[in-house]
Amino acid sequence: MSDQTTGRIPSQDAQALSGGPGGPGNTPGPERSPLELLVEVHTRLVDTISGFEKITEKATPEYRPVAEDFLEMHRRHEAELAAQLASMGHEPQADGSIFGTVNRAVVAVRSWFEDVSDNVMDRVKQGERHLIEAYDAARESRQSIDTNAILMRHSAEIDAMMEKHEA
After folding, report:
1. Which CATH superfamily is domain 34-164 in?
2. Which of 16, 26, 47, 152 is most buried, most CB within 10 Å of its CB?
3. How many CB atoms are located within 10 Å of the residue 162 CB?
4. pLDDT digits over 29-86, tens only?
5. Ramachandran class of 7: left when φ > 0, alpha when ψ lies in -120 to 50, beta otherwise
6. pTM score, two decimals?
């Protein structure tokens, strides 16, 4: 795998090992089951809710309704997806991932130095894209018709919310 003369990994192989030019997770790895992908969507939703709870807490009065709109939508989505997972015999996790904890900490630290207002819309957009990627991956797997309908509706609602608030 390494170049005989330099001992370095050729760039193409290095990209494959690191997840490709777009970063880890952008190259195909071991195929994940539809259930695992659905659980990933739920985990990202829990993380997103955690972030929006902190954003709402720290938001300026003008931005708070925007944050509350996103938070309410994601809470609805999480509850519906948790019910779907439960109907499939899977107990949804309420904790999320380390990403959610880090996200809350970042919002809290930033709020010490600046208001949480329109200047966080870039981070909101990034977070929503991260969530949509999980929805897309789950939809592209072999989900049931009912599950796919939920995933498609949630994605459309996220897109509409981002457009409404120009995220």
Report:
1. Ferritin, core subunit, four-helix bundle (1.20.1260.10)
2. 47
3. 17
4. 568 999 999 999 999 999 999 889 988 888 888 889 999 999 999 999 999 999 999 9
5. left
6. 0.71
